[in-house]
Amino acid sequence: MVRVRRSSEKRYGVLFTCLSTRATHLEVRNFMARRGCPVELWSDNGNNFQGPCTELRRAFEDVDKDLLSHEFTGPQMTWKFIPPASPHMGEAWERLAEAIVNSRPLTYIPLEDENEESLTPNHFLLGSSTGRGPTIWMESQQLADSFWRRWLQEYLPVITRRTKWCEKAKPLVEGHIVYVCDPGQPRSQWPKGRILKVNLSSDGQVRSAAVRTQSGVYTRPATKLAVLSIESSLVSLAEYTSGECYDR
User: What single DSSP character describes residue 109?
Assistant: First the structure.
């Protein structure tokens, strides 16, 4: 909210987050002019993005597609949406802002040398955590190589850890009967449906799926789909009498 004369009005900005270095950029416009053209854009699947996306598709039919593609996107830039109702997939941009946030440490603060800085997003953007970086080109290149080497050795292993899941779960498959988890509703009111199509990520894992319910077809992340497995919940009489069921 900003003051305009004697009234208050809303002003909207855009928050960009680098999915590699976690550097942030908060601005209404001129992102590419300052940071360059990104290879890939990801955003929420909200109506504030899907609505303009539909309007742009309609307007795109009446313009010079080759000229527009060359000027604004290019052959190496794409825009993708995360699945609906999956804010955890966009946590990299959901919880950040610019300036001070870009000086936060990404790795542990070194204990061997008190003068050595912990790696921060500003190292990649400005050459140091405070923005007071070198001006010599050769020194800048050497520091950039050093930053990326530290990023690979110190930060990348941290963000690729899978400590939340101790065992590999069975992936969703087409035909599974599932409940669509809705935190805003009691479990007894969660819609039930059948998986029509699963969506694979670049690592071959199922991250989301399209589910047909009585209310229509919904695309939801795998974390919001609870598979109904009757077979796994049944214990045979032989297991019960032998005591094997108590070992589970």
Answer: P
The answer for residues whose C-beta is within 8 angstroms of residue 214's C-beta and 6 or more apart is: 191, 193
Residues 6+ apart with CB under 8 A from 227: 172, 176, 177, 178
Distance CA 225, CA 219 (A): 10
Q: Up-side HSE of residue 195: CA atoms within 13 Å toward CB?
A: 24
Q: What confidence tens digit (pLDDT) does each residue in 65-105 have? A: 677 666 665 556 677 778 877 777 776 666 667 667 788 88
Task: Please state, in angstroms and rounded to a whole number, the distance separating the CA atoms of residues 131 and 152.
Answer: 22
Which of these, 3, 67, 80, lies nearest to 39 by C-alpha position? Answer: 80
Could you tell me the pTM of the whole model?
0.45
Domains located in the chain, CATH noted: 2-94 (no CATH), 103-159 (no CATH), 177-233 (2.30.30)
Q: Alpha helices, DSSP H only, in the chain?
A: 31-35, 47-60, 65-68, 91-94, 121-126, 137-150, 156-159, 230-233, 237-242
- What is the C-alpha to C-alpha distance for residues 129 and 158, in angstroms, rounded to an integer? 20
Hey, what's the torsion of the CAs at 110, 131, 91, 21, to 10 degrees? -70
CA pair distance 28, 11, nearest whole angstrom: 9
Structure tokens at 199: 């969506």
What's the burial of 166, exposed, middle or buried (CB within 10 Å: 0-12/13-18/19+)?
exposed
- What single DSSP character describes residue 107? S
